[in-house]
Write a structure and sequence with these properties.
By secondary structure, the chain is mainly alpha-helical. The chain is 42% helix and 8% strand. The chain is built from eleven helices and five strands, in the order αααβββββαααααααα. Strands 1-2-5 form a three-stranded antiparallel beta sheet. Strands 3-4 form a two-stranded antiparallel sheet. α2 crosses α7.
Amino acid sequence: MQHNDPTSRALSLVEIDRLFAVIPEEGPYRRFIEAMLYTGCRLGEIAGLVCSDIDLQDRTIRVSRTASPGFSGELVVGPTKGRRVRTVPLPEPLIPSVVRAMRGGGPHDILFPGPRGGTINSKNLSRALRWSQVRESVKTFPPGEPKLHWHDLRHTAATMMFRAGLSAPDVQAIMGHSNLTVTQIYARGGADSARRGAAALTNLYENRMGQPGPDIRRPDSASSE
């Protein structure tokens, strides 16, 4: 799903808390959603992870495949959208869930399987969490805009990476964007400039309060008096 301003689709820190409040505190679906939120990977990329993709020592995740249902419902495993293997960070909040997910699993076992060991996809994830009923308690949008979508967790991750101070090339590499122009949409440079401008203009006008305004008379009229 494309949007002119994907940062408007991103969750704020308060909305992230709301998200976690409407999903179970433990279990496979919670771990799956945490992985999407904290890594910025696409849903199919999270579904395609296996235990050997995790490097706990370096705190990184190797993303090389995607798993999704085919036209007949069969599992289709293929390359990532950009057909590139990339490495994404494994942040501290996600480590406990990853360690629990890896427990007892072999190197080629699915890292984040469903409750019965199968692959999680958008349909069974939404059905299990009653997503259509609870998502508006997390975030709402103006009339005419799509409601909160799982892909918006990817928008959230990219936005948070810039807020954390990562450079645009770093965010591009982590997110797997095809070019830097796509990545820079999340930088919110215009919003940051507007905030700096608001502060500067406020300071200017506050300093002028109570003082006479500038003399804007024409020089020739001023000299004739």
